[in-house]
Amino acid sequence: MALTRCVHFGLLVSFSFLLYNLLYLFHFGKVFLQLFKIFILLFLTIHSAYAYTLYNNIVEDKVWKSGETLLGFMEENMLPLKLYYNLDDEDEKITSDIRGNTIYQILRDEDYKIKQVLIPLNEELQIHIYREENGKYTFSIDSIRYQTKDVSISIALDDVFSKDIVQKTKNFPLAVELEQIFHQTVNFSRLRTGTKVVAFYTQKVRMGKFYGTQKVHCAMIQTHKKSFYEFLDKDGQYYDDQGKTHDKTSFMVPCKYRRISSKFTLKRWHPILHRYRAHHGIDYAGSIGTPIHAAYDGKIIFMGRKGGYGNTIIIRHPNGYKTLYAHLSRFRNKLRGKRVKKGTIIGYLGNTGMSTGPHLHFGLSLHDQWINPALKIVFSKRLHGQKLKTFLTHVKICKTKMQHLSEQGQ
User: Fold this and answer.
1) 228, 229, 280, 349: least surrounded by Cβ within 10 Å?
2) How do strand 359-366 and strand 298-305 relate by DSSP bridges?
């Protein structure tokens, strides 16, 4: 069974990248090709789901369907619905953050009865439904257990960038991350055979598989004409070897506010409730009626009530980004389904939904994964002063390490 699965998976890989090369030969646009490569990686990840045995449990990898709800999932799998109806407001709100195409696990016993369900909410927290020894099920939101390891790669390209990264490392998330980091400076379709790729990164492994974002600390793509560098700074941004950022997608603060009442966090231990909490956005406390602006150019794809978020607007932006604006008092008329420019007034700050006071909850996702909006609100395109001096010292050390690794890989 394992051998058959490996053969089928290898055929999927070969077929997918063969199709990519054919599209390239027929001169499809750069943007289309980049999106298609991301689709390949997502397709292969989803279709790698299978059942296997772990600690005497039958483990099923499943894919959360777009539009699926936790209540519907529990009904379908004949789990006690009181687990859902007994959730407090905060936990019920968090369950709405399960995103489509999330890979989750169902663990079954030898009689094929459900023992556990593990549904990731983000890279740090998961919904955990567990069957006790007395047969009763419990619900909790727990920290995700995974292993990390600092590793490095140095390879010479033979074919397509993504394909070579995956073949050499078996790490799909790493290929996606490197393309995301360099997509503004490198034309991947024009990279030639022999191009050097060097990277130092921290990989995550969960249940024997590469998991989540692979944190790239520094990376280099060296062509026959030029070397491209990207370095991760303490502020969470990537800069080149001169301290400049090439990220053209700079979002604006969506409203005037008195203070930030809650910051973005994937996992925080609540000292009073004694359990983990996530906050997938930034809360801007302000006065009811304060105008809310579109943080970037895009199309409004949702405008209405959305559970605990109350009155909500969702805007789809280029390159896989979406922004969410929640707890609004009201919407601006005649904008539903329309395209809006960065800075356009789309609604007004309020206190609707599960809210403890007037504020805007501002969320940002990339390919349907929540990210910290603060990392995309760029006030300056380069570092200055002491920050630049410290950064350049770090760059010098990293360049030496990457050059040494590149020479070893020759």
Assistant:
1) 228
2) unpaired
